[in-house]
Amino acid sequence: MYTYNAQNLIDETFVSESTDSLTYVNKIRSKNYYNLANNIDSIVTFFWQNGNWYKYKKDLYEYNGNNMITSKEVLSFNLATQLYIPSGRRQYARSNGTLLDSTYHQSYDQIALHYDTLNKYGFVHTNGLLIRSHAYTFNTGTNLWEPTQGVSVINYYYNYLPNATSNISAKSNDFFLYPNPCETYLHIQGDLVGAKFAIYSVDGKFIQSGIVGTNRQIFVQTLPEGNYFFRSEKDGKRIQEIFLKQ
Description:
With 246 residues, the chain is mainly beta. It has strands spanning 2-4, 10-17, 25-34, 40-49, 52-63, 69-78, 83-95, 99-109, 114-126, 129-139, 144-147, 153-155, 176-178, 185-189, 196-201, 206-211, 217-219, 226-234, 237-245.
C-alpha cells in the first residue's frame, strides 16, 4: 500500500503479509525523502515487531546531472546506540551519463573502516536495450576477478526490439518494459492502462500487484536487487516479461 505527498509522489510504502488472504499483518514500512529535483534522496525502512515500528536501515542516493543514480549507500540502524552504521554501497558507472554500463557492490569493513568491492556486474546493450549481463566476484586469495558461479551470464529476450529507446513512445500497440535494468520506476510501453499486473521473483514468489495507471509506471525502488517477472493480462491477452532491478 502506498501513501502520496502533496506533489503526488510516493510518501510511504507499507508491506503486509497474510497466510489466508483475509488477515494481514504489518511487516515493513518505508518513508521516502526527495531532493529539489523530486528524485528520492533517502529511504528510511522500519520493521514491525510486538506492535511497534522499529528503524531498520536507511538508503542514501546520489545522482548525476542527468538525474540518474550514481551511488546507493545502505546504513544499518543500531537499536542499542540509536545510530546509523555504514553497511554496504553500490556504485553505478554509465555510458554518456545515462546508460548503465557496470555496477560495483561494496561491503563496509567495520574494523578497517572502509568499503571493499566484492562483486561487480557488466551490462551489454543493443540499441539502448539490455541484452546480457555478466557477474564477477573478487577472489581475495588471488586478488583476481572471477565469473560468479551459477549466475555469471544472463541473457535477456524481448517480444519487440525498437530501433532506439527514443522511439519507445511511438509504438503504442507493442508491449515493452523500460528501462531495463530499472532503478526507481519501471515504465510500461503498451496499451495496459487499467489492467491488473503482478510481479514475481524468478522462483515464483509473489512480490506485489496493482493496476497500471495512466502514467504507465510502477515504483520499484524499494524492491531488493534481482531479476523479476512482470505479468499482466488485458482483453484476454496474457503478457510476461523479465526485468532486472538494480
